[in-house]
Every structure is written in structure tokens, then in C-alpha cells.
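Dear colleague,

Following up on yesterday's call, I've attached the two folding results inline so they're easy to grep. Please treat them as preliminary; we haven't cross-checked anything against experimental data yet. The first protein's sequence and C-alpha cells come first.
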Amino acid sequence: MSCWFMGTGRFASLCLSRIVDLNLIPELVVTMPPRRGGRRGLAETPTPVDVLATERSLNVHRSIDVNSDRALLDRMESNGPSVILVIDFGQKVGEPFLSTPEYGCLNVHPSALPLYRGAAPVQRAIMDGAKETGVTVFRLVEKMDAGPILISQSTEIDSEETGGELLFRLAYIGGDLLNRGVHLLKEKGISLQDQDHLKATYAHKIDKAEALLSWEMSAVAFHNTTRALNPTPGAFTFFRDKRLKIWRTALTEKDLDDVVGAVRIDEEGFPVVRCSSGSVKLMEVQPEGRRAIDGKDWFKGSHLSEGDLLL
């Protein structure tokens, strides 16, 4: 079965790597053009998918808008694929791409649809304290993440798992599911199932303001937000008027009678901070302008004493 792949970001590149390893080779990889950056805006940074496709010697087409890309549209009309795999693309794909291929466009979404439709399903699931999530392969329709489901798989979320770690794991699962789904379609051995739209929930894009932590949060919320936003955008608080990124925390049973924001040291030397309910252990932090360090070293270098407030 001939296929094209449309993708841009890290999740897409991981899925692409997996399906290529499984010998599902796209005839064409479509991605966004390189971004300009650097001090003078002259350096160009290719997308993660572009980098991976080039490394794997795949045919790459770069497009800022596939829906108005004449060269791509002409290719679709003259020698289009049987299916298009659209993952983490950054563009809304419309007609004729949705209906021209025999099997339409398939998308891999890192949630158990119809739960967590939208831009940030991994982060939102962790922030909500969800114990389980999933990966869904479904057919694209005009409405976001609402198409009929081809195949899905659930997986547990570890209580210490970060957003980046979970995304990596879901991408691997997604690549496997995509490969299985394409083969099932080819063999005509599966039918798509409509989603129950009444059960849909939404994972809205993370706002920058949500990355600001407060000791007034519960320890559970503090911990879940920290791991959800690792590695991007990274959760932070302020200490002595400077930004302090919090990369890793752990919930602790150490019962502190102090006021909110007070710090104590546990038996391993890690700082434990009182939240509105419960306490968190600071495992890894990053002071403004410095590299990330473990909580023990940060506490020693900050000239703090037990009972001080992290304000």
C-alpha cells in the first residue's frame, strides 16, 4: 500500500522512525519548511521530521500550506497514495487530501479518544493526575480529533513519568499501531468505529501562565504540573526574585507542620517544601542562568536553613 507521511514535530519524528523500522516506508514525507533563528535570524533549523527523513534517505517535500501547494496537489491528482499518515503536522489538512486517497488520512493521537482531544493531551492527562491514557489511530475529518477510530491501545501512566517520557513511549506505541492499522486496512480486515462525541473532553494548549508554580497548590497538583511540563515549557517558581525551574519532584509522606513555603531537609539531604496540603521533595532544579542540578546541591549552595521560606 502506497502512503505519504505529513508531520513536523518530535512526536511525528518518533512515529516516523518507528514505522520505517517496521518497513512501512512512505513514498513522500511532507513537513514544514525550516525555521529561521539565531541572533540575526539567518540560521535555518529544519523540523524534527525533516531531520529524521533526511537521515533515513526518504523523499522530503517542504510546504508552508499543503492546501494551496500546487506542486503537491498536482502530484496527488496524478499519482497520489492509498493513504496519508498525518501526525503532529502543525497544519490543518483539508480537501482533496481527506477524500482522494482510498483510505483517506490517518492520524495518531496520544490519548484514548474521545478523551483529551486537542493540542496538549499528554500534558493535560498528567496534570489531571490520570492513571491511564492511550494512543488512537483514527481517520481525519474536518472536525478536530473527531474522526472514526481504526485502532487504539491503552497504557498506564507512572506516577513519576514526565511529559517528555510519556510522549516518547506513546510515539513508539503509535508507530506500532499505525503499522498494524495500515496492514488491517490493506487486508480489509477491520472497520472503523465512530467516537462517542458525548464523552469527549478537550486538552487545550498549555498557556505560559500555567507554568508558574505556587506553594499554595496542593502537593499533588505541584508534582503533576512539574512532571507534565517537563521538558517543555518547564515549570518554575521564583526564589529571591529570580526564576527557579523545577524539573523533578517527588511526593513525600514527611509531615510538615510549617507554614506554606517552608523548607525542611529529609534524611537523604533533599529539600522538602510545605504546600497547601502535603509536601514535595525537590529532586532537580535549575536556578536562573545556570544548569540544572539536584535538589541537595542547590539547597547547600543557596545558604538556606531549615524552616526558611522559599519566597
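Below is the second protein, in the same order (sequence, then structure):
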Amino acid sequence: MKRMVLVSLLVWVGLYAAGSEVGMVSYVEGEVVLLREDREPLPVDFGMEVREYDLIRTGDDGYVVVDFLEEGGISGSVEIRPGSVFQVVREEEEKTTAMELFAGQVFLKVKRLAGTDEVVVRTEGAAMGVRGTEFEVITSAGGDLLVVCTEGRVACRTGEGETAFAEPGKAVERRVGERLRTVLFRLAEAEDLKRNWLTERMEAFRANAPRVFSLYARLYRERKGAFDEAYRDLLRRQEVVNEWIRRYKQGRLSEGGPEALRERKELAGVMLRLRKELFLFSRVYYRLVELVSYYHEGVGHGRLDTGEGIGSFVAQVEKEARELASRLQYVRFVMFLFEQRGRSLLGESLLFED
């Protein structure tokens, strides 16, 4: 059975300021919404602040540019292209700012770096380490990956220790279940490379849709089970979470004194596991949202490798979608509260491990 391999794009940079803001919207067009806290989706507009654990979702005509806060040691921006799902999270115990690309594509510009902490752009396939560069990360409907660097150099590393370098004139590709490989191109033809790659991978997906659906059906059921278990564990601490929400909405999240130390001891393990399962399941869930849309366009009719009809599986996903989307948003809000409470009371994340 083919395995999905975690992709991380590593950029050495200082952590953002202690506040929750990680950037600001400098340009937007088309349908772009932001999911924050426990609110309804917010239309994204010019000048809107982007906070950690905000989920940005672009429609088929949506496009948004987020400028990073220079206080964090990086002068640059991320362009989130149409049909993408994206968020930013600070992981202070690992000295990392993580950019999660759940679907679609982003173009990252890093103009100035400071400090020795990491910025990680995660998707499926490899780990790319860069220092002062411009590069684009593109994912296909089937989970394939293309990294195109137009300035500087990007080190692409897999979990198995394989390494390849993306640089001007040499892209790096990883298809699901395969090794990294380099793709040579003329710099003036970079746009043609990206466009042709997306077209070719879409054709491959259409030709092998039952196999792609089979892979994600297995991942969906495996990771949903793990996420549900972690979510139930969170609900056993509902009284504490409700108190965080009450204080947050009253502007009193930083109150509590010694309570924060007790929460750190009692809840850190629960929250670490929950965050892990949140990210793992989100990658599958938002990819499936994309696949389901193609199913309704006539792609993927047939059977899974288990013999189950793809239509039956799609019906299950759609039946569970509203509740799962609500749970994912709630967990992101709880993670945001947990992190902010730790920073305000302890000067560090409550997830910090001694």
C-alpha cells in the first residue's frame, strides 16, 4: 500500500512577536474566506490581520497575499492561489513557525531572515530548507508535489533521508509513492512548467481516480478515528476549556496565575496529541473536500479497492462533513486559546516540554 509522506518546507527565521498576529492581508481578489475562533466564515479584506490558527480558504477565483510581520525577523509574503486551504501556527517548543498547506498552492517570498528558528510549510512529499529565496509549492488533486524555485536554493528532503535541490532552472517533484526527482526547465518558461505540470497531473488523476479515492478513503478512516479519540479526550476537559473561552471573550485570558502551571501539567499531553491529530486529519479532510467536488463533476465513479462503491464513500464523507468541519474549527480555536494563555502567563507555550 502506498504511503502518504509528510512534506515540510523549512525556512530559518526568527519567531514572530509574542502576539497572535502573524501577518496582514495586502491584496485580495475573488472569493477568500477566513475561519477564526468559533465564528462564521469571515470575508477576507485588505488590511485584515491574520492570526495563528486562522484557516484561509480561497475559491476557484480567489487569491490573497499576506505580508509577514517584520517583528518576527522575516520580511516577505505568501501568495495563496485559487483553490487552496492554508494556515499558520507557531510551535514554540520546537522553535518553529509552521505554514500548513492542506490543498492548492502558495508562492513564498523570503527577503530577510533573522535568528535561528524555523519556518515550516507542510504538505505531502518532502522537506524543503531555504534561506532568503522565492519559491512556489504546488500540490495536485492526487497529492503530488512540485517545488519551483525562482531565486536562491531550496533543499528538499524526504522522511527517508532522500535529498534534492530546487533552484532556478531545476524544479523538484514528488509523486505519491515515488522518490524525489528533478525537472530541468528554462527560467523564462517557469510558468509553462507549472501550468503543464498541473494539467498533466490532473489528467493522471482523472485516469486513476479510483486508486486516488482508495488511498484517501483508507487515510480518512484511519486518521478520523485517531482524531475522534483525541477530540473525546478534549471533551473530558470541557469545563477548563469553557473557562478559557469565557475569559477570552471578556479579555481576561491572561488571568489565572498558578492555574496556568497546573493546566500545563494536566493538559499538555492531551493538547500535544490533539494538535498532531488535528494537522494529520486536516490534510486528509481538505484533500477529500477537493476530491468530492471532482466526483460531482463525473470524476472517480467506480469502486474503491475494498469493493465499496466510491459513491457510497462520498455520501459518507458528505454526511459527516458539517460536523467534522465544526470540530476542526473548534479544535483550532482551543489550540489558539491554549497557546495564548501559556504565552501571556508563562512567557512560553503551555505545550513547552521540560
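For the second protein, one point worth flagging: The radius of gyration is 20 Å.

Best wishes,
A.L.
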